[in-house]
Structure formats: structure tokens, C-alpha cells
Amino acid sequence: MRKRTVQQACGVAVSCCILLMLITPRIPQPQKYHDFADKRQFFGIPNTLNVVSNFPFLVIGVIGLMLCQHRNYFKLNLIATAFGSSYYHLNPNHDRLVWDRLPMTTAFASLIAILIIERIDAKKGTLSIIPLNMAGIMSVLYYDDIRVYGLFQSVSTIAIPLMALLLPPVYTHSTYWLWASAFYPLAMLQETADKVIYACTFHTVSGHTLKHLFAAMVPVVLTTMLAKRSVDSGKLLHVCKVYLNKCSISQIKVEEGAYDL
Question: Which controlled-vocabulary keywords does the entry list (predicted)?
């Protein structure tokens, strides 16, 4: 029942976003986007704080890979985010922007795939990795219209907490998903208020630098969850019972069909 609710809610969200794209004009990436508030240079590094504030992504990505005993595309995307965003902020322009956004969108895609694997079906989740990543990549490459990128980002930020909230978890500490989901909207708000925050802090730190730090809190929370969590035996038993019931119902239908023949 909950899985159907999540599917319906995600379907409605996607439909609304697509409808919005159909009734609104194309929005090209504005050149002024690259005009960040903090342009200070330290130690010969242009836009220093906007560059070095990506370092937490690298640290958390490496730690996450050490904690995971199997391949983890999300952590690899974090490491790519650290390098891609740093490369962009050394000289912000349209050509470099793709390397800033690409790893982040594939990180979102990986998170959705992980939730599908853990909460819905491992096989479906594994199969969803490629199409989800392709959707994220296409949203970035189509930079002549930032509505496509905004659509993917909006759907991701809605789908992840919705799935974490409504779908039954197998592991403990599942509320960490919700805490992690809360940090990214805060990061977006800080990015929007880049120059306002820079002025309010008397040119100490800009909103975009804070955006990097708050966005990095998402993998920090999720890595903490990985380190702490364990299989919840009670919830695992419940999931197994539901699965066995579905198998039994399917078997009965197959047998009824055989009798009809």
C-alpha cells in the first residue's frame, strides 16, 4: 500500500513538473549566475573559499568508500563532485558549469536507486541505476534550458524524503535519511542568497560557500547512518512476511489459471 502511495505521489510530482515545463517558456542559463559574491584570492587560488569548500565532499567520499565493503556509486560521485565543482569555481563559466553539476545529479540518481534497492526491490533498484543516471546527465547537458535541470533536481529532492518516510526500512537509523534530505533545500536557499549573506557577514563568508558546506552535510549524515545502522530484525521479518504472502497469492493465481486451462 505504501509503495503504491509513493509511486502515485512521485507520478503526480513528475506530471506537475512536466506540465509546468509545457506551459512556461524556455529559460536559458543566465550569464550572471557565474558572478559569485566572494571573489577573494588566497595562496594564489582564485575564488578560494568557493573552491576549498568542496574539500568535505572528497573527505566524506573517501571515508564512505572505506566503510562500504562493496562498490558505492554515490561515494564515487561525491569524490567527482569535489573535483568537478573545484574546477568550475577556479574559473566560473558556461563551459565548466557542466563539470560542477554533472557529479551532483548522478549522486542524486544514485541515492534514489539505493532507496529503491533497500525499500522496494533489489533487482528493480539495480536496473534503475542506468536510466536514472542517464536522466540526470541529460538534464545537465541540456543547459540551453535550465528547466530540465531544475525538474530533475526538484523531483529528486521530493522523491528521496518521500520514499524514506513512507516505505518500510529494513535497517535501523532510517530517520537519518530525513535529516540528510533537509540539508539540501537549506543549501539551495543559501545559494540564492549568496550576495546577501556575504554582505550580512561583513564580507567574511558568502552564501555559495555555505551552500557547499551544507550540501556536504547530506553525505556526512548518510555516512554516519552507514556507520551506525544494522539490520532491524523485526522490520526485516515483516518485509519477509509481506514478500511470502505475495508469493503465495501469485502461486495461487498460477494454479487457478492452470485449472482453468
Answer: Membrane, Transmembrane, Transmembrane helix
